[in-house]
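Q: Start with the shorter request: fold the first protein.
A: Done. Sequence, then structure:
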Amino acid sequence: MRGRAWLGAALVLGAQLRALWLAAAVEVHTAKEVVAVNGTNQRLKCTFSSSSPVSDQLLVSWNFQPEDLSSHEPVFRYLKEPYKPPSGRFKERVTWDGNIERNDVSIIIWNLQPTDNGTFTCQVTNRPDVYGTIGEVRLRVVQKVSFSEIHFLAVAIGSASVLMIIVVTAVIICQQRRRKARDKRMEVADTEL
């Protein structure tokens, strides 16, 4: 009787695991935080993985939660094709930049403004995967690039330029010295003959 109980338990467990496999979750991946300069455009990257092939019922929803925690706003939707929002702050400022075949559901926000500070959420549903994580991107819009970033870039470019000048100068000096030494040896050889 014990053998039958184990067999029954194994069959029930196998059926449950199969059901869990069929109802697997979609995993959504985003950058956790993005910093962009006021007035520029920013790509908000969102990719996903699913245990099922991408279906024609794939649904992508982008939403926005402002920093002041007022109500969520729809930003973008994709169901068989991209749908821009008919109203709201992102009406004429968002475009689709994804590629469904590559599991990329990214968007671009145009002409960023300080009022765009907040959290963008990316949700993907790919039937038969019924559950999924929600990706979050915290966007910070700054007035200009911080001094430390500009300073670092200037130092890197300046150092590379100075290094190139030193290397070129050293090569030219070495070539001139070799030429002079060769010419001197030839003069000495000519005088000896």
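Q: Next, the second protein, separately.
A: Sequence, then structure:
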Amino acid sequence: QSKGKKPLFVQLVLDNIWSLYEAVMKRDKEKIEKIITSLGLKIGARESRHTDPKVHLNAICSQWLPISNAVLSMVCNKLPSPLDITAERVEKLMCVGARTFDSLPPETQELKSAFMKCSSEGTAPVIVFVSKMFAVDTKALPHNKPR
């Protein structure tokens, strides 16, 4: 970087995303067509004729770099298997705040072994782990009311 060279990530990933973004925002049709054909994408006529460049950008990016597939594959490839969890880690996950595992009810303590087995059998208990909750104003929630 001291010699003015770009890092490899910038050269291979970010420059391509920035050039796509710039071409769509400036409405450079020739460059957009070149990008679409080189990536082998099929953009619908409706999206390509749309006046909002964000719609066009979303149509290209959703086919080129679908976020759901990228996140799922990253989680599958990078996160450790739940079967590799240690007993101490299970106890920490099951306890909230300053509570200790020994202070939990016996029924909850019995779930520790099921938590560590990650069994999918029909007789295995269902364990749900909520990692984070956000307070959301009711006005921000969708309302399915008939019009």
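Q: Describe the second briefly.
A: Residues 81-146 form one domain. The chain has two domains: 8-70, 81-146.
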